[in-house]
Amino acid sequence: MKHVHDSLPPYVKVENGELWLTEDDRENLKISYRIKDIIFSEQSDFQHVMILDSYDFGRMLVLDGVVQTTSIDGHIYNEMISHVPLQFHPSAKKVLIIGGGDCGAAREVAKYKHIEEIHMVEIDEKVVLSCKAHLQEVSGNLSDPRVQFIYDDGVAFVKEHENEYDVIIIDSSDPVGPAEALFSRDFYANVRRALKDDGLMVCQSQSPIFHLDILRQTYTNIRELFPHVQVYTATVPTYPGGLWSFTIGSTKPLSLPETSTIPSDTKYVNEGILKQCFQLPQFLKKALEK
């Protein structure tokens, strides 16, 4: 191993001579992954950052013991949070990504040649650098000249911008620690101000199974600020519950163009997925109607 066992964080343990990562979700659910190797492990100014190589999920980004993305299914999340909103704004020129330190969302956005500027605001530079170096299945070692990396607090950054972006993608981690403020109504109000008159935003809104209260609050906050709001879902095996949600808020009606502009090299998103993902299960439809 590249790191001695006595310096492991408490969520990575040696059992019967094998390494295991155990993620504790809400203190009610524990998910354990058998680990081949510790590729990277350092404490940043904000959180503990690890890149682990696992048996079933390949390399994974782990922040403070919580799996953020993996080689085997990271493309599902990153394609869904990027390509779906961009289909509703096919003429977007300037895109802001808040969070997304694994570079996966920025990598997907950069596939659109008509987009001229991509600003990626990530509070933790160590996350970006470690993913570019050690998690290239997700990051692609992103080096597109249109992508500007801004190492700053996304909440503070968005306050300083008005009527500037066509699309804003909020690719946050769970609403704890540095990411907690990225789920507040005040933050979404500042996002609304930072968008152009015909702009739209999208955020990940957690698990409809285990975090329905967060999803409902996110939906309510965005609905108070945007006239057109829709929730869509995807199955991401890494995330607790599997089923994951995203919420779009738009200043204009959400209608898809007659001709899709989905890139040809996606692994998950296609025209069928694009239409199907807005078909919500009945329990979720009822929860959002309340």
The secondary-structure element order is: EEEEEEHEHEHHEHEHEHEEHH
Rg from C-alpha positions? 18 Å
The overall strand count is: 13
Biggest sheet strand order reads: 9-8-7-10-11-13-12
Shape: globular
Estimate what percentage of residues fall within beta strands: 25-35%
Architecture of the largest domain, CATH level 2?
3-Layer(aba) Sandwich
Unreliable runs: none
Please tell me about this protein's structure:
There is one protein chain. By secondary structure, the protein is of the alpha/beta class. It has two domains: 12-68, Spermidine Synthase, Chain: A, domain 2, CATH 2.30.140; 74-289, Vaccinia Virus protein VP39 (Rossmann fold, 3-Layer(aba) Sandwich). The chain contains nine helices and 13 strands. It has helices at residues 74-87, 104-109, 125-134, 136-139, 154-159, 185-194, 212-225, 271-276, 282-289, and strands at residues 12-15, 18-25, 29-43, 48-54, 58-63, 66-70, 94-99, 117-121, 147-150, 165-171, 195-204, 228-235, 243-250. The protein has a seven-stranded mixed beta sheet with strand order 9-8-7-10-11-13-12. Strands 1-2-3-4-5-6 form a six-stranded antiparallel beta sheet. Helix 6 (185-194) crosses helix 7 (212-225). The radius of gyration is 18 Å and the shape is globular. The chain starts with 11 loop residues before the first strand and ends with a helix. The relative contact order is 0.13. The mean pLDDT is 93.
